[in-house]
From TrEMBL:
Site annotation Raises pKa of active site His: residues: 144
Record lineage: Bacteria, Pseudomonadati, Pseudomonadota, Alphaproteobacteria, Rhodobacterales
Protein name: Phosphoribosylglycinamide formyltransferase
Binding site for N(1)-(5-phospho-beta-D-ribosyl)glycinamide: 11-13
Keyword list, A-Z: Purine biosynthesis, Transferase
Reactions that this protein is recorded to catalyse: N(1)-(5-phospho-beta-D-ribosyl)glycinamide + (6R)-10-formyltetrahydrofolate = N(2)-formyl-N(1)-(5-phospho-beta-D-ribosyl)glycinamide + (6S)-5,6,7,8-tetrahydrofolate + H(+)
Amino acid sequence: LRVAILISGSGSNMVALAQSMQGDHPARPCLVLANDPAAGGLRKAEDMGIATAAVDHRPFGGDRAAFEDALLRPLMDAHPDLIALAGFMRVLTPEFVARFEGRMLNIHPSLLPKYRGLNTHARAIAAGDTVAGCTVHEVTPALDDGPILGQARVPVLQGDTAESLAARVLPMEHRLYPAVLRRVAMGERGLLTLTDGMVGSA
Ligand code: GRF
């Protein structure tokens, strides 16, 4: 299976996914595609021998459709079977998502359905939550709303800041996303849940 990974920044989730596909795995990364030519993840992908491309979204202004048409070109040239959004910070139109319905995954740094959108860790702390985490879901036209494929939980500790909580969640993202990708690539379904130190499937 060919997996295209879309990034916007450092690409730490992309690295975790790419590393997980090395060796005995039914999937391989076929492209790392960024919406910013300066995305740090592009260099990391090159160092791992993965094809890369970048389409800067800024020249397109608010014309999402035009940006997405430009994004489709390198994406379709890579003939992906699956698309993994990994720290990809652009909202995709329903038309773009519809092209990949059922074949596009995303990781979101909250326990969906709580805290769709941005600033998830600050919002969890402000709400006084004692548990936080991340979610891998199928991408559907509504933002951060598709069927949940996996979740990982971490405790929210006294005195946590958005940064300290993010630092606790991010390593769990790097465990959850590869585990869910492997199951999807194997054609398995079912919700995968991780808690600190444990792997269990409900
Ligand atoms: C992080 O905030 C992560 O929680 C979210 O996207 C951001 C960047 O991730 N998934 P990455 O390091 O670019 O994968």
